[in-house]
Amino acid sequence: MTTTTTYIAHGSGLSFRGLLLSEWIKLTSLRSTVWCYGIILIINLGLAFLLSSVVPAPKDGTPVLNQEFWAQ
Questions:
Q1: pLDDT by residue (tens digit) across 17-37?
Q2: Model pTM score
Q3: Rounded to whole angstroms, how far apart are CA atoms 67 and 57?
Q4: C-alpha torsion angle, residues 19, 22, 28, 31 (rounded to 10)
Q5: In angstroms, rounded to a whole number, what is the distance separating the alpha carbons of residues 32 and 22?
């Protein structure tokens, strides 16, 4: 049989600096973090390219926000 132990935290004693340091160690020691950052970067660049290819440029040189583009 296993014994279940319940811990109740009444202030862990971890400072904000210690918390930031532990998160930094976690982010830099996991290999999956690098892959996730790379995937996020590729998705963001892909969405930027997609949106820039779909939204038309203004014909008369005025910014799109000054035209009634969305009312068409």
A1: 999 999 899 888 888 888 898
A2: 0.49
A3: 11
A4: -110
A5: 17
